[in-house]
Structure formats: structure tokens, C-alpha cells
């Protein structure tokens, strides 16, 4: 924190055109002089935090500023004599960080902790002093942002600092809010650092801090961080984008005229709305240029429409699509289905008679505040519903951002004691920029599981069952059996099938399909501790075990062809009273299929002779059943015993070798009465370990 400091004017990438328009710029020199003069009188707010107080009161008119005054005085006194590398008094840094958060609407506790965020790390102030002066919440947040000692952790200090910070964020998201604002100010003032150190800090910002800002919904910080990183890591592309924007500034911009047309349409419709033109930031312009090639004037910004209520958003959308030509492929409804980072808006694009295509974002003012500030806009997300109610210190706090990514991260980091593993897996996890939600169904309860896009049934298994997922042998997705490697889509319903054998374990191939760190770490740990079993999973497949009886033929099906041999088709195993069709095949035999069997159409297509068939008056029949089960000892004996108890004869049986602890059986059975088939299938399903029985 104290390392990344310089004069902002010395670094071109920190100039105002990179920052979000309308943001107040701190006069560090004036604040530095104010800080050097020392504290003011007891009854007066120090001049140095005037900007902070003004921004804070704009969002919280009734805020008590006395605690900010006390926090500033402690910070200024403890940092007195410390200078940034640029030469300004160090107090200008916590002031700048606090102003960033105040402009985003942070509540008083966050601002208090922000003013003090470097005191424990860089001065003689202790956490006990902070707790005594400002309470447990401020103390917890300050501790969460404080770096671990490099003397204790060496090269692992940075990953362990982030681990500590993320664990603290799991209990209070305001910790990460301060860290993001701290990194933004340091990135704005990075110019005096050596180029190699600038690049190192920028890469960590790109790989870790920017994805965290995206997940916490703090777009105002994310976009500026992206531009600052872009300028340092890709200076040539940054300069070409800068030149592109500068060239556009000298030509006529169609967006203001389109915005005027939108205002007129909404005014005529009686919809109260505020319409703005929002210029794209540098990285956004660069992405659009790479995607579309040559840019038109309307590509350099978007139109933002702010309304009062959710219903007004859809009313605006209807008017836009009625009065302009909509680009349907650009429509997205993030109000009905919010993003995982709290973001809500309607996105669309409309074409004007002049041929311009303008992107339009429609949201309420509250949605806009959350879109810009994310979790910061939540104020104190842990405040009790009633002011007099005391929070239980032992009760786990509800995550206000409802992000599955944070819960997953907190879970798997416990299994990654090695700092290098944690650091590399953290970057990989944060690189997943989309999430899906799948529904869990285990027969007794339902719930949801949040996973990164592209996750498989393996990831769902470890997210739901932890290490018990080692025994997972299959899954049903939306009611259909599927392999564990199958990828999941948003909204799928997943039922995971676990083996009863406690010694079951994952196969090495699972690593090829596992996307989440929790799954990959758990699988790798199991394979490392069971090297013999890991080798066994790659051994060659065994041939199926077959048990064949003496009988065959067409059962009680009769063909209207004298002396013809009748055979029941194995593909559909018809039984009375199924509607059937017969076809003459080579050798003079008649094969009998169910009327809806796919083979019937194929037989007719190749010109096979159709033969009328019917069932004998006798009730016996032959049928082939497929059973799927967990692998366990004596399974075949138990299944054949269940079949025998129903008075059914086994004509033939085939048992395939286990695959991922699943076993597939095929039985051709002679039933004394076709009416007993449902009872037979129920009896087979009741055998322990059998989870599916169906006709072939």
C-alpha cells in the first residue's frame, strides 16, 4: 500500500481522461499542506477531509461525521512524518481511498475503516487500539485489509495476504471494497515505480482485483482499473485506442441526437425518464474495435435511460421497439434474471432511419446505483432489521451478494495449503467470468448449486457432497441418465448417484472434465493417496459376462406365413398386447417389431416384405430388460433370485464390466403372463443398488 505511490501528473496513464467522468479530483498538494498543519480544533472538521464529508453527506444526509473526524485525527497523527514516494504526506493516500468510497455511497463504518486501513500495517497503532476507539466492526475490516508480515511468509506473503483478505471478505464484503479502492488509487499513482514493478502490480490487478471488482458488481472501480492496466501492459494498443477516441472527438457524434429522439418518444408516451449518453471507456472501445473492425460514431458510447420503477423499464423497452427498429439479437433481460454480481438492467439496440445502431441500457435509479457501486451501494449489509436488535456474534452472516463463487472459493482454499497452488488456482477460478445455477434433486430435498459456466456433473457432485463425491458413479440430468463428464447448462436439474461401496474412488479421467478448484483439488488428493487404484482405473475393459439359456424363438407371436420361423426383435422386445409389425428377412424368417420401433421405418425403406403377425391366445411372452446398478458383490445373484421369485424364466443374461462403478445388465426373460411385467420390473428395482430397470 505504501509502495505504490507517486505524483499523478508524472504518469500519463493516470490523467483525467482515463477516469470516470464527473469524479472529483483530490488536490494532493493542498491536502498535504493541510495534513502538515496538524489537527484542527476539537469542534471543527479538519479541512483535509472536507471532500470526503461533502461526498458522504450527498449519499447519507444524516451521517454522523464525528467518527470520521476521530478516525482522520488518529490516521493523520500516526502517519505523520511518513511520506509517499512522490513526496506527499502519506495521509493523502487513505484520504484519497476514502473519497473514492464516499463517492460510491459507502456508509460511515466503511469510511472509518478506510481512513485507518494502513495504520496497523504501517504505524504503531494496534488492532486493540482500533477496537477500543471504533468498535469490533471497524477493527475486523482494518484487520482484513492489513497485509501479512513478509518477514514471516517470505515469497508467499502476497498469496497469503489475498487468502486472508478473501476469508475476511467471506464474513464482511466491505473488506474487499476498501482493497479495491486502495488498489485503484495506487494504480492511479504508479508512475515512479520501475517498469518491471509496474507490470507486476498491473498483472496482479488484471488477474485478481479486476475479476473481484466484477464479481462484487463495483463497475465504477472495475472500468477504471481496466483502463489503467491496459495502459501499462499494452501501451501500443492503448495509444492507438486513445488516438481513435481523439479522432472521434473531432467529428459529429450521432448519439446526442439519438438521445434527443429517445427523450421525445418517452415524453410523448408519458414516461418520466432521464436519458444520458455514456461514453465507453478505453478497454470497451478497444474490444468493440477488435470485434467490429471499423467503428462508426454510435459505437463510442451507449444511451442510458433511468426510470423510477421496474415496470417503467419494460414500458421504455416497448416504446423503443415500437418507434425504432430493434436489433433483436442484442436484447438481454437482466432484470428478470439478474447477473450473479447483483447487476440488473435491460439491454437492447435500435437502428435509426439514418442507419446508426445505438446500444441502449434501461434501468431504475436504484439499479443504476447498484450497477455502478455494487456491494458498496448496499450500505451496511449486516445491519439488523430493527435498530434495537443485537446481532449474535456466533451466528454466520448471510452473504449479501449471494455469489456462489465466494462460497466455492472459501471452501476450496481450505484444501489448498500450498500458497503456490492457492495462487494459481485462484487466478484460474477468477478467470471464469460466467456462472450457471443448477437445481439439486436427491429424492428428499431440492436446492440450487452455483457453478462456473462449462462445469460438469463432476463439479456438481463435489459442490453438493464434498469428498463423498469420490463414490459418484453417474447422474440424471433433467431426468435422463448421463455420464459424469456431461457439461451442465443453466437451469438443469441434477440428481447425483452415489455408490454404496465406501472404498469407491474417482478415475484419473475425471480431471479432464472437472472445472472447479474444489473438484480438481479433491480428485488430485485422492489419486495421490491411492496410486494403485489410480492405475486400476486406466486398465483395459474386460469382456462382458454372458449367461445364455437354451430357449429362443418368437415366443407367442404368430406370423400369417406358413412354416415361417418367427423371431422377436431384440431392439424393441415386443410383448403382448403391443401393436406389432412383421417383416420377412434373409433365411425366410419373420422378425417382429413394435409398431413404433425405428427399425420398422428402416425395413420399409429398404423394401422388406411386410408380414401380418398376431399374438397367440396364451398369455406368456418373452421380453428383454435392461438394468443399471451400482457395482457390489452378489448383485447378479440377488437380481436372478428376484426374477425367480416372480416365476419368470431367464433365457439369457449379459453383465457388462463396471464403468465408474456402474454395472449394466441385459436379461431376456420368458414370462408366464405379460400382465406380470410391471410387477417384475418393480421387484428388480427393489434389489439394493439397482437404480433403473427398463425394456430394451
Question: Which properties best describe this structure?
Answer:
5-stranded mixed sheet; alpha+beta
Account of the protein in words:
- This protein has 696 residues and is α+β, with helices and mostly antiparallel strands.
- The strands form 5 sheets. Strands 1, 2, 3, 4, 5 and 6 form a 6-stranded mixed sheet that branches. Strands 8-7-11-9-10 form a 5-stranded mixed sheet, with helices on one face.
- The longest helix has 21 residues, at 195-215.
- The chain is elongated.
Brief summary:
It contains 26 helices and 22 strands. With 696 residues, it is α+β, with helices and mostly antiparallel strands.
Helix proportion range:
40-55%
Q: What Rg do the Cα atoms give?
A: 34 Å
Structural class, from helix and strand content? Answer: alpha+beta
Please give the count of helices.
Answer: 26
Low-confidence stretches: 1-26, 31-42, 385-391, 537-552
Overall average pLDDT? 79
Number of strands: 22
> How much of the polypeptide forms β-strand, as a percent range?
15-25%
Main sheet record? 6 strands, mixed
